[in-house]
Design brief:
15% strand; six-stranded mixed sheet; DNA-binding; 25 helices; multifunctional enzyme; WH-like_DNA-bd_sf; Nucleotidyltransferase, domain 5; five-stranded mixed sheet; cytoplasm; Arc Repressor Mutant, subunit A
């Protein structure tokens, strides 16, 4: 295995211990150390204490930290300890080129495809399907829930708060536990019970159920309950552990059927791995397979206990390696380094923008142009000039590259809708899944293809929009907008009418074919007929599809839905957004001075238009977004 050009610092920060290691090659860790958090004033002091133990000639340029805390933006505040810090300020203070901070459970999830052969132990039967969804549970101070979804050659980690799903008892003992918990909590989640504090709560509940109540002051701590249960001599502790393992089986089965996790369910955290063979003999697997009509389904899904002590290190190191490869292969992702190199050539005003970005890059991601200009004490046009001096098309393009450079990837997740969801949860999931798909398409936009499509449409004497079935709404929406421009346009969903329509096209005309799969024979025939007439073909379809190969220009939307089993949802929204991109582009090309608003009819020949598109600095009283605001923003 090839060694790195320079060693990398890998850390796993919890509420009690901070673990460190030096990674010399991918997955190869040396100089491991565990420091007590209480012995150090803050995060910087702990890292510096570890770095001071390294040889003087060992220089660390890149570091990655997994931390037991949600990571959103630049500021990190630990929920189970008093440490807090700014990621960018800490990077500068420690002298690292890169400092990546991720949630520890995200790191654990990303380790699963990379665990060594002896890094897991299967409990029960089942066989994992390759390249399938994988579920993850971990009990410790709380209950972590995550998943991995295969995406291309890699994996996407699913952000989840599944530990807070409502607990559902399965027998009399668990009903007794729930009743006891209700005395303290209005809502009882699985995390309330399947955690260190949960073991203590269940111990008191089962003692009360047995007629020998124990108050909180005399309740053994979670590690002591586990020790007593394993060694024997405390019947309540043994029963507590038995109930814990059974409940975990229910939770794992719920996760398996919710995700369709045929790639397996993995158990991590600090509690289960310490139970060793006792967990294997517990009722965990029996409860996992006790799923009524879906018992056969879950019985085929394997369950594993993560035994690799370096699992979190493996995951966070993999995330760091992925980011560094992106930065090396995509110049746009190294935008911070590019800014540093360009500082000597910037104007004094642009330099103030550069200094603001370098000092607070994650803050800039969420700032509108007015706030950036105010913080740098420059005008808004200066901010735009700064972005363009770096080769960016504008502020939105700059932010996209900045986000890529800071995180290594755009956050893309998909959350499964279940029958148990409330209307609020359902709405949030549908909107979240759609937003994630939009971000994915945005990251794949090809400027050259968009420019080419717009050029063809601007020059066209006539445009025909062709699609089939429930995607007809996209074609009719496009027809309406282009007719408003005064461009002759038609929308057809019937195959016979489509062939008749493109059969009268002429050279210079355009056929826009909209297809989720790009494989329908009738639409492929439309493309052929259009080319026979000398017309150009613009395809809004899946990349690498037969239709994409026939088209002159392809606007790729790689989100294919099975319209035979469900109503197209996300793919149709993505196609509508592509139509909007083309609409705005055509509007701007036909009126480069901004005189043509896209929401008003085209003036008749010789008739002057008094309406103008609002500029980026104009506030629209009605709240209608201007063209400059028609972008998506990503952290």
């Amino acid at each position: 295995m090839a060694t790195f050009d320079s060693p990398r610092l890998i850390a796993d920060i919890g509420g009690t211990f901070a673990r460190f290691a030096i990674e010399t090659a991918l997955g190869e860790f040396t100089r491991q150390a565990s420091l007590r958090c209480a012995d150090h004033a803050d995060f910087h002091a702990a890292v510096r204490a570890y770095l001071d133990t390294l040889p003087a000639d060992l220089h660390v340029s890149h570091a990655a930290v997994a931390i037991a805390n949600p990571v959103e933006g630049d500021q990190v505040r630990m929920t189970n300890y008093h440490w807090e810090f700014s990621i960018e300020a800490m990077r500068q203070r420690l002298g690292f080129d890169t400092l990546l901070v991720v949630n520890d459970f995200t790191a654990l999830a990303m380790s699963l495809p990379r665990l060594p052969a002896g890094g897991m132990r299967q409990v029960g039967g089942g066989q994992a399907r390759p390249r399938s969804v994988i579920g993850l549970l971990g009990s410790g101070s709380g209950l972590g829930v995550s998943a991995l979804i295969p995406a291309g050659d890699g994996w996407v980690s699913l952000g989840s708060e599944g530990g807070h799903t409502s607990f559902s008892p399965r027998d009399e003992r668990e009903i007794a536990v729930l009743r006891h918990a209700w005395q303290q909590f209005e809502h009882v989640s699985f995390e309330r019970l399947l955690s260190g504090p949960g073991l203590e709560l269940m111990y008191r509940a089962l003692a009360e159920h047995a007629g020998t109540p124990v108050d909180a002051a005399h309740t053994p701590a979670a590690p002591e309950i586990t020790r007593r249960a394993l060694e024997g001599g405390d019947a309540i502790a043994a029963e507590t552990l038995d109930v814990f393992c059974s409940m975990l089986g229910t939770t794992a089965a719920n996760l398996a059927v919710t995700l369709g996790a045929t790639g397996g369910i993995y158990i991590g955290g600090t509690i289960v791995p310490r139970l060793a063979e006792t967990f294997d003999r517990s009722r965990f697997r029996a409860r996992f397979e006790d799923k009524g009509r879906f018992s056969r389904y879950v019985a085929a899904i394997p369950t594993y206990v993560i035994t690799a002590p370096e699992a979190t290190f493996i995951g966070v190191a993999a995330i760091l390696d992925s980011q560094l490869k992106v930065m090396q292969s995509a110049p746009g992702a190294t935008i911070l380094a590019q800014i540093r190199r360009a500082c000597s050539e910037l104007s004094p005003a642009e330099l103030r923008v550069a200094e603001h970005v370098l000092a607070q890059p994650r803050t800039v991601l969420n700032q509108p142009i007015a706030d950036i200009a105010r913080a740098a004490q420059v005008s808004q046009p200066t901010v735009i000039r700064f972005c363009r001096s770096l080769g960016c098309e504008g502020l939105s393009d700059f932010k996209l590259r900045l986000a890529s450079g800071l995180t290594g990837t755009l956050p893309i997740t998909h959350v499964q809708v279940t029958n148990d969801d409330s209307t609020v949860e359902l709405g949030a999931k549908v909107l979240g899944n759609t937003a994630s798909a939009i971000l994915q398409v945005r990251s794949q936009l090809n400027r050259e293809m968009i420019d080419r499509a717009i050029e063809l449409l601007v020059a066209a004497n006539r445009v025909e929009f062709c699609t089939v079935g429930q995607y007809g709404a996209v074609a009719h929406d496009a027809q309406f907008k282009f007719l408003r421009f005064g461009i002759p346009a038609g929308a057809y969903t019937d195959p016979r009418m489509q062939l008749l329509a493109v059969g009268v096209l002429k050279p210079g005309d355009v056929a826009v074919i909209i297809s989720a799969s790009g494989r329908l024979p009738e639409l492929l025939e439309v493309a052929d007929r259009a080319h026979e007439r000398g017309a150009a073909v613009v395809a809004i379809t899946a990349s690498q599809s037969p239709l994409a190969r026939k088209a002159d220009t392809v606007l790729a939307v790689d989100h294919v839905e099975d319209s035979a089993t469900q109503v197209p949802m996300i793919s149709r929204i993505l196609q509508l957004l592509v139509i909007d991109i083309l609409t705005v582009g055509v509007a701007m090309r036909r009126a480069p001075d901004g005189a043509l608003p896209i929401d008003l009819p085209v003036p008749a020949p010789g008739q002057a238009s008094m309406a103008r598109v609002p500029s980026a600095d104009t506030t629209v009283a009605s709240g209608t977004p201007t063209l400059s605001h028609m972008t998506l923003h990503s952290r």
